[in-house]
Amino acid sequence: EKNTLAAMMVGRAVNLEVEKTPPQMGEVVLKVEDLVVTDPQMQVSVDEVTFEIHAGEILGVAGVQGNGQTELVDAITGMISPVSGTISLLGTDISKSSPREITELLSAHIPEDRQRVGLVLPFPVAENLVLNTYYRPPFANGVMLNYPRILTDSKELIEKFDIRTPGPLTAVGSLSGGNQQKVIIARELSRPIKFLVASQPTRGLDVGSIEYIHKRIVEKRDEGCAVLLVSPELDEIMELADTIAVMFRGKIIAMVPADEATKEYIGLLMAGVKPDQIEKPVKRGAIEATF
Predict the structure, then answer these.
(1) What are the DSSP calls for the chain, one per residue?
(2) What is the pLDDT of residues 66-78, one digit of tens each?
């Protein structure tokens, strides 16, 4: 039994099934229309993609790694500019905005590569916890950093988000992968946000950290945040998403309500089988059947 094995690994009871209530969806927070993005080799990696995410909804993007998910996230978070199409966040066009401008529109980003994009490894934990707010009060007085306040706040976040570190001045690069990820989670989720991009948020982590991060993501969704979750892990998508978008060769080939999805159905879509060639799954309570 998965939960028993997980408990033996972690030393306490672990619930791998995410507990969440039906979504309470609100206004459209993110709207993507006809988006085209190229990769560094100038090949089209996001091919005329259109979708929207509502407040209180987790949209899970499923797909085998390398089908355009990375470039989709990079365009939405301002890391690269799209070739064409529009991205709107709460009614503001962010297609050509910088990462800082997008962050200031109450959005947060848990990046795919925590060490290269998410953290500055030689910097202490305290400074990594303010990487997106260090230039604003209360952490800055003009051009001067308010270091006592940065330290005070970092101690609170270390305790609240259970970051295992000798102290706030420890270099973040010396922490375990799970604790490095918790530093990013603490930084991104401790501010008021309306939109969260979580790209492979549990990659390479132990089951205890995975359970913790899943809970935090669902909490944000229940607070009315719109969440874009990208993961090659089908189990993670099935557990967390309210709606599943399947990406294949740069296109979203299907949008499936999570409560109508089965692993077999989503797995076939991920392999590039067209929706009209697959028998639609029918769920009957705990029993899944395909006709």
Answers:
(1) -HHHHHHHHHTS----SPP-PPP---SEEEEEEEEEEE-TTS-EEEEEEEEEEETT-EEEEE--TTSSHHHHHHHHTTSS--SEEEEEETTEE-TT--HHHHHTTTEEEE-S-IIIII--TTSBHHHHTTTTTTTSTTTEETTEE-HHHHHHHHHHHHHHTT---S-TTSBGGGS-HHHHHHHHHHHHHSS--SEEEEESTTTT--HHHHHHHHHHHHHHHHTT-EEEEE-S-HHHHHHH-SEEEEEETTEEEEEEEGGG--HHHHHHHHTT--GGGSPPEEEETTEEEE-
(2) 999 999 999 999 9
